[in-house]
Amino acid sequence: MRRFIRKSKQKGLAAIEFVMMTPLLIVFMTICLELGNLLVEYQALNKAVRNGARYAVTAIYGTATTQQIAPTTEIQNVVVYGANVASGTAVLDGLLTENVSVSHNNDLVTVTATFNYVPTFATLPFLENDMNLNFSASAVMETGL
Predict the structure, then answer these.
(1) Pairwise CA distance, residues 99 & 109, whole Å
(2) pLDDT for 56-94, tens place per residue?
């Protein structure tokens, strides 16, 4: 008889615990998804910048010397669009050629891009803060031997 009484007192307790924990689980899952998306976009930016730096030192034709690099606009297009012409869609939404800088000092080419990451859930209702993040990536290549 006692076992039956104890079970009846706890009836529905698991459902109440589930209802209480569900919002917390949803917040943790959202944070994990946003962090994963941030890392994917950061990796895509790094890859685009490396491709731009590689293009800068290898896309030199004619009587070029080891001190020359590809035109800056073409390098910026490679970073943003993945090709040396400004056509198609950008590698990352919101990445513009104005966000890409190219510097050539001595034998080194540095390509740097800045990107404003906008999360899927841009604001949290209870914080009311902007959750956008600015990050940058750089790649350095040698122009010649």
Answers:
(1) 17
(2) 988 777 656 667 888 899 999 999 999 888 888 999 988
Nearest-Å Rg of the Cα atoms of the chain is: 26
Q: What phi, psi does 113 have (nearest 5°)?
A: -130, 140
Residue-wise over 71-83: b if at least 16 C-beta within 10 A, else e? ebebbbbbbbbee
Whether pLDDT at 4 is above 60: no
Q: How confident is the model at residue 54 (pLDDT cuts 50, 70, 90)?
A: very high
CB within 8 Å of 81: residues ≥ 6 apart: 87, 88, 89, 90, 91
